[in-house]
Amino acid sequence: MDLDVRPQPLPGITRLSLGALSGLLAGYAAIAVAELVSAAVRPESGPVIAVGGAAIDRTPPGVKDWAIRNFGTNDKLVLQLGILAVLTVLALVLGALAARWRVIGSAGVLAFGVVGAAAATSRPDSTGLGDALPSVVGAVVGAGLLYLLIGRLGTHRARAERTETVDGVPTAAGAPSDPATASGTGDEAEESRWDRRGFIVAATAAAAASTGAGLAGRALNGSQGQDAVASRAKVVIPAPSSSAAPVPRGAALRIKDISPFMTPDGDFYRVDTALVVPKVDATSWRLRIHGKGVTRERTLSFDDLLRMPLIERDITLTCVSNEVGGPYVGNARWIGVRLADLLTECGVRPPSKGGPADQLVARSVDGMTIGSPVDDVMDGRDAMLALGMNGRPLPFEHGFPVRMLVPGLYGYVSACKWIKDIELTTFDAYDAYWVERDWARKAPIKTESRIDTPKPFGRPKAGTVMVAGVAWAQHRGIDKVEVRVDDGPWEEARLAAEDTRDTWRQWSYEWTAAKGGHTLTVRATDRTGETQTEKRAPTIPDGASGWHSVVVTVD
Predict the structure, then answer these.
(1) Quick one: pLDDT band at residue 4, thresholds 50, 70, 90?
(2) To pair with 124 at 20 to 30 A between CA atoms, which of 116, 184, 222, 362?
(3) CB–CB of 271/411 below 8 Å?
């Protein structure tokens, strides 16, 4: 007796599971191939970066602010991981769908390629239709792989039979009574055969090839920034014609846990929309100055700026997304070209002196636009095109080769990183990136203060406890800081020496702490006599306000 076991169709749940796995492999292949192709176009054209950038552009301001508040400088990593998680789920769904409808599932992969291509070409920094190539090629590869893997599972509608034969004659119960029918089932069974070996080989090869493509793409994209890295390494910033004065003795208090007076580069906050930090080669970088009231349009190189008189200043920057008591404020020593002098050379006059333009729009290499009041830029404050930070060329994360900053204004209306273009226009004629998203057109930094120590929910010992922190009111200066314990009277804190009115100021207060729970509150008064308001306001549209408090338990 010979046993003839003809191939059986895959159980439904197994077929769906293998289909979902096929979708996952197809999605992985699509992303990996797109990463490799983006190395031949530009890193920002990859689908994850393009879709992530498009998502940032279309996210409501409140949601962005929530993300920055909860994830801090990791908000971009969280976004990218979220995109990958969504793509993973969609790949699994499309794979399961393809297990039943092969063409429809594969077409779904192509559809997501179209979405990625549309996102890449619609970005403000898009260089043209070439940006669509990574998404398109990746989707075609992914769709083709899904179609191939599903084919290894056999056709969904086919059926097969199991028969026992003796000398070719069917004998098993339920076997066809007509031998011709039995022999004819061979073709049908061949249609439904699950090619186990072929599936495993194809899936393994696809995973390996995709991993290789992804690693190669990552390496090539990383190498594209080597010229920029080399150009930064060669930068030698000349001595400034106007140096910053030494930080006064007593400006930096020696108190544990207080913010250092000068913020190290690695600790300086970073809040921007760039999913990939632009790495710009200083040797090829150019800045164009043009627009209303510009009588002498100019295009400048990095070396042109190095040959100009440089100023060096200590300036505290603040992000408008900084909540009361938040971390998005930092102080550094900057060196650069005075922006007002450069604009004057181009024939620009502020509106207060009859100039036609009241807004300066700075554009970044990543498509960001930031609008600043021309009067503020040219009113005598140390607005600059910064080339260096804390004695070194700018870090890439903070705008190398050149960034703009204006003391006294929140970053979203003054601090354009990776700047490449300055256009003089009017507020009526143009809304910059954040203004289009319901933030205020003008945003001077509000008077604020923060308790650095003790920390919230800290447990200091009874007795003398040092309460300390920082206060800032850039371009006005801090005149007084007061501390209140629970609902008691306001007590004046001791101010550290002032560096300049454009820097924050440290303060301290010796508190005789009694056991139990207490609330410590701080407020500051600037040099105009304005005291920090108690009224709480959110960051949108022009910066948060309110008093910072911490709750502690004294043991």
Answers:
(1) very low
(2) 222
(3) yes
